[in-house]
Each structure stands twice: as C-alpha cells, then as structure tokens.
Amino acid sequence: MDRPRIELTREELDRAEIPMNHVLVEMIHTSVGIKSKGGVILGFLVDDVFAEGDDSHSANMAECYARVYKVPKALYFNPDDPQSMDWDVDMELQVGDMVWFSIMESKNSPEILCEKTLYKSIPYSDCYVAKRTKVWEKNIILKSATAIYPLNGYVLCKILYKPKLSDLDVLSENTVDKTKGRVKFVGTPPKAYLRKEYCHIDDLQAGDEVLFDNPAAVFLLERTKALATFDGDNLYWCCPRRRISLILNR
Prior knowledge:
The protein is mainly beta. The protein folds into two domains: 1-27 and 63-151, no CATH class; 153-250, no CATH class. It has three helices and 18 strands. An eight-stranded mixed β-sheet has the order 1-8-9-2-5-7-10-11. Strands 16-17-12-13-15-18 form a six-stranded antiparallel β-sheet, with no helix packed on it. A hairpin with a 2-residue loop joins strand 10 and strand 11. 24% of the residues are buried. Residues 39-53 have low confidence and may be disordered.
C-alpha cells in the first residue's frame, strides 16, 4: 500500500520551511522495477518482507540515498530541551550533496510530490554520509573530484573476515567477522552528547583496525552488492564512533 503523499507546486515547496534538525531530499531513483547490476529485476513487492536470517527484501529495496534539496541554517542542540538532537555536531550537508540515510526513515518519512518528483523529509541525525562533487576551473579546463563526508560521528569500516583455523578450514575465510572492521572513511566526531556517559575515541584514522563494542551496534550502509552505489561493489559497516571500543591495529 502506498503511503499518503502531499502534492505541492514548486513555489510552495521552495518557500516551505523544513522541520527543525531535518533535511529535505530529492529522490533520484526508485526501487520499483529496479534491476541488479547483472540485469535481474528485483524491484517487486517492495512493501512485502521476505525474511531469511538478517536479510529482508523490503529493507534491501529501501531507497536509502538521495540528493539534498534543502538544509537548515543550523542544527539545534540543547541538553535541557527534549526537542534537541541527541548529539552536538555541525551542519555539514550542502544543497546538491548525495546523502545516504536510515532505511527506516526512508520507508516511513513524510513524502511530497512536486512536478512528478518525490521528496522526503529526513532527520539530520539519521544521515550517515555524504558525497560531494567539487568542480573547479584551471587554465579553462574543468576538473572535478568527489569528496566523502561521514556525518553525525558515523564511521564507515571495511568488512573483515574470520581467520582460517587451520589449513583444512575452508569456511572461516568467507565468514564475516561482525566484531571488528577496518576504518575506511571517518569524519568529525560529535562535540557533546545528551547522555553524558557517552564517550568516543577522538584519534581514529583511515586504516585502523577497530573493535566494535557490540556487533548489534553496526549495520551495512548498503545491504547488497547488486544494488550498491556508494563505492562500486564495496559494502561498508556503518558504526557510531562511540560504539568503537578499541583500536586493535594501526
């Protein structure tokens, strides 16, 4: 069943104010009829759930990235106000950025239809990482580069596999080790938390092998290689910095 959608004109959308600590994103793709990189049609029955272990068709099909259309001037953090964000971070998104965000928010956020394009209002705290293409001119030749900005203190880690127990062990090397990862992308940590008992490691660097404090605290930024768009076929753990308990190797 389709969720209710509010239809607005472009003028209405552009003058509208977004909720506090939210961003408005423009959905640039849809899971309806979507195909895997191998050409297999996957986007059917997107509201049904087919559970198998940690897998779910509905979650795999969730549209978890979009283009930023509107951002707040600032984020609100006040430990004495229940309307505050849970952590104190700077507003790092810019209009035009590609942003990856919560699957749950993708499935349940308010939807706005404008000129046949779908927009969603996403809490900034549920945004994990942004990609920004920078273009500059030098000697009349336009050049561009893509920058990665992990948001809200989230860290993206490469997936590691369990070591072989012996030369006869042919299973472990293909078994994901959910207790640890290798840092690939790391951004600015939160300056404070609503819960004062929270803390984190400040000195995290790309390449660090780290231990997660609980395997349940991490999740995949994208759930399947067949539909991954963030970095080719590479899948990454997404982990709050405060849930990294140790640096194992540097």
